[in-house]
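Per your request, structure below.
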């Protein structure tokens, strides 16, 4: 039986608590692979919006970029999990992430009666970047090409006029340099920096995994972590790759004043609603308590 999500009685106190609060939601590109998954996520975002919360959405598209590069005969090069972005690969990022995925997401939100501002409305100009300088990885210098690191977030450009009805920003993983040119940006980094700039109540990271796992054979995710525990876990060999990067950005957000970071599955039904509108949640909650 499909999980119906939290009941109205269960959700009511959380709706009152978080009404009017900014919630940054980052969606991994893998969630766009199957239409049914993203179509389940959109009604949850619509529920948050219609309950008075103010969602801000950030998405990547790593897998789709890899597939498009392969189709176009472009070499896929990554170092330390980060993509080397040539001008040709940047065009793929723009076509796939800013074009196909962003437009699809905005269309689905519109169909759910959620007003959205996507790449076509220039939301990415709010993500002000500097070009990533070459870095030494495994003893050699690596030039990442058309890649940016977030330098600032122009909140007014992101949210639009305060006098107007709230419109949900839908940010692809693209930023803008001082000269106006576009660059590829890590979506987790964008989400964390946006959450800090907005003083968001929550940063929620949706991915394929149910949360932060103690080890690969664990029955379920760690329910709650402090910043100190998160730093210890990140420094250990128990988390690798993408999850290590998520923990790094979670700590960045909490250090910047975000109250709570959630890492949850975007695959299972109604996880977003259960994580925000119930006491027990469903994934991993990282709090800015004991450091």
């Amino acid at each position: 039986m499909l999980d119906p999500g939290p009941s109205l009685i269960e959700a009511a106190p959380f709706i009152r608590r978080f009404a009017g609060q900014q919630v940054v939601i980052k969606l991994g590109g893998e969630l766009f692979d199957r239409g049914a998954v993203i179509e389940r996520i959109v009604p949850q975002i619509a529920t948050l919006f219609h309950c008075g919360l103010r969602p801000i959405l950030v998405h990547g598209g790593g897998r789709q970029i890899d597939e498009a590069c392969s189709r176009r005969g472009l070499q896929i090069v990554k170092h330390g999990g980060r993509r080397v972005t040539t001008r040709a690969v940047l065009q793929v990022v723009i076509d796939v992430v800013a074009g196909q995925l962003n437009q699809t997401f905005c269309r689905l939100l519109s169909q759910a009666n959620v007003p959205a501002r996507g790449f076509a409305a220039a939301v990415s100009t709010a993500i002000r970047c500097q070009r990533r300088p070459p870095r030494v990885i495994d003893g050699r210098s690596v030039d990442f090409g058309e890649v940016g690191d977030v330098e600032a977030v122009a909140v007014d450009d992101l949210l639009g006029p305060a006098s107007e009805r709230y419109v949900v920003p839908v940010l692809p993983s693209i930023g803008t340099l001082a000269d106006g040119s576009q660059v590829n940006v890590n979506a987790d980094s964008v989400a964390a920096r946006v959450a800090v700039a907005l003083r968001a109540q929550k940063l929620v990271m949706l991915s394929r995994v149910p949360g932060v796992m103690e080890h690969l054979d664990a029955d379920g995710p760690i329910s709650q972590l402090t910043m100190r525990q998160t730093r210890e876990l990140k420094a250990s060999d128990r988390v690798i790759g993408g999850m290590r990067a998520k923990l790094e950005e979670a700590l960045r957000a909490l250090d910047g004043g975000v109250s709570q970071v959630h890492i949850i599955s975007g695959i299972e039904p109604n996880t977003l609603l259960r994580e925000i509108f119930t006491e027990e949640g469903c994934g991993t909650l990282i709090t800015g308590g004991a450091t």
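The radius of gyration is 18 Å.

Regards,
D.
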